[in-house]
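Saturday, quiet lab. Running sequence design on the structure tokens for the scaffold JK sent over.
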């Protein structure tokens, strides 16, 4: 399997790239900073410099040639303002979907976030509110496309060691999940095409990853 990952230098993306490479798949990470390339190579991925805020759909589509799936794991990141939440978390996700359509890549996994179903509460930090709105807009855009999409909404992310056990459901309840377990779930979702069209929340829980993904298809 050849998987192109937007936000290839992010924490989840690097873990995903390692997991894919470990089992013999081909991971391609889209990055905006050439200085990040060595970290991707160390993870077993092929780095491709492609700043999704400053390229057009034709440029992106060329990097998806021969891909079996794309994963949007990009984000504006800590310290960015509300404007970049929109240009990265929403607009770049839509651009990747446009490029996937043009390149004939049907499978699209979107890493979103819990908490996007409801409008931000009064008093919510402006940047966090912009992030939630951007993630929800990216989800809504993807649902309107003729792609085999799956939306994954992790809970509070941690850098703890993976447990290999999760709760994965339409409504999982509030909780935390390790980034490493998010990466493992993404791999399992790539292996399970019957999860296309699903929006799934994810926290750590009692069920082995493979079983949790399989249960969403029954």
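Result came back. Writing it out in full:
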């Amino acid at each position: 399997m050849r998987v192109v990952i937007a936000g290839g230098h992010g924490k989840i993306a690097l873990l995903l790239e390692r997991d894919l490479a470990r089992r013999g798949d081909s991971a391609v990470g889209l990055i905006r900073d050439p200085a990040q390339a060595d970290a991707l190579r160390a993870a077993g991925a092929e780095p491709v410099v492609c700043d999704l805020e400053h390229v057009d759909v034709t440029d992106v589509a060329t990097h998806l040639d021969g891909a079996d799936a794309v994963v949007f794991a990009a984000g504006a990141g800590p310290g960015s303002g509300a404007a970049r939440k929109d240009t990265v978390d929403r607009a770049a996700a839509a651009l990747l979907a446009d490029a996937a359509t043009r390149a004939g890549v049907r499978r699209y996994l979107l890493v979103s976030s819990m908490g996007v179903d409801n409008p931000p509460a009064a008093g919510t930090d402006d940047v966090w509110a912009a992030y939630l709105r951007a993630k929800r807009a990216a989800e809504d855009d993807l649902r309107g496309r003729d792609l085999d999409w799956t939306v994954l909404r992790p809970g509070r992310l941690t850098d703890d060691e993976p447990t290999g056990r999760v709760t994965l459901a339409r409504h999982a309840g509030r909780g935390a999940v390790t980034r490493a377990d998010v990466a493992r779930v993404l791999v399992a979702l790539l292996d399970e095409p019957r999860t296309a069209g699903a929006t799934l929340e994810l926290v750590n829980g009692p069920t082995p990853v493979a079983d949790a993904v399989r249960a969403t298809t029954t």
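Notes for JK: The chain is about 40% helix and 25% strand. The chain has a mean pLDDT of 95. Ask whether to fix the surface positions before the next round.
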